[in-house]
Design goal:
By secondary structure, the chain is an alpha/beta fold. About 45% of the residues lie in helices and about 15% in strands. The structure holds pyridoxal-5'-phosphate. Pfam families: Ala_racemase_N.
Length: about 220
Amino acid sequence: MSLTEITARIRAAEMAAQRPEGSVTLIAVSKVQPLERIEAVLEEGHRIFGENYVQESLGKWPPLRERFADVSLHMIGPLQSNKAKPAMELFDAIHTLDRPSLAKKIARMAKEGGSCPELFVQVNTGEEPQKAGVLPDDADAFIDDCRGMGLTLTGLMCIPPEEDDPRPHFEMLAKIAERTGLSGLSMGMSADFEEAIAAGATHVRVGSAIFGARDYGQR
Ligand SMILES: *Cc1c(COP(=O)(O)O)cnc(C)c1O
């Protein structure tokens, strides 16, 4: 599917949900995609991209940023604390703030550096042991803690369990955001971004539907 088609489907989903046109930001998830495919999407004029790995992004994006102005990069993969510094320098947004030790580190570096990426707290709505994110029951307290450290939060992020109907997860995330006064909702991927928009997503993270299937063997 093309970028144009995905954008059209996003606009249609906004309309169906009676939401303003352009209220949903499309993050094109380019992890492990070959450079030609990313360049093609940049040539089409898209500038907002998502990546999962700091190391891969450091190799890939600084040269692309020299050729294409105004690229906005979103970190959507789990963030190790020892990669927090390069991640803060490279990314405009981090969607995977999920633990106090990482929050502390980011708060300290934001103070030292005088700037901070936009921050989303990842919530493990399916309470899956292998998945990152704070548990739903711990979300409010963690959000309070982050604010207490001086961090400004943009919103929440979730990745519903693959086998579940994603809608209750999107609705749960929207509810937590509402009661904690957060306006950003990073939710919805290739298979379910329209449902996410219906539930209030402000940022959808779409990879394979734009770029084609990922080939991890090529890395
Ligand atoms: C890879 C990834 C995506 C994109 O997934 P697709 O199914 O290819 O759209 C979105 N969000 C996160 C957190 C991801 O890791």
